[in-house]
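Q: Convert this sequence to structure tokens.
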Amino acid sequence: MKRVLISACLAGFNTKYNGGHNYNEIFADMVKKGKAVPFCPEQAGGLTTPRNPSEITGGDGRDVLEGKARVITDKGEDVTEAFIRGAEEALKLAKLIGADTAILKSRSPSCSTKCVYDGTFSGTLRDGMGVTAAYLKAHGVKVIDSSHFIER
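A:
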């Protein structure tokens, strides 16, 4: 059976920056049935839960991977390296389980496939991908935004 990688928060794991989750029955059911493997790149990159909220400044996840942008917390801490490590770990897991697809949380600085917050912590979104989404896509993994399933 082909499995997909999925943002752990979507299946109800308390991996969000604030210690919460983004539980959705659709995604939890995929994990229960063994169709999806949950993963949090921010935790895998070494960040704690809870943690300070982070946004990408100077671009999106692709720009972070190219060294043109940084991931900064609302307290001014640079957590770019943890986000990159988490992306690398996500790819390792995708390869390990044979996943060629990942379903990722929308609007996340790690996981979003469509848009990210603009780095000002003002709630303003801009087009772009999160760090993990960009890394997985660059390595041939199909990335699907969670909103594709739940905002119809």
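The radius of gyration is 14 Å.
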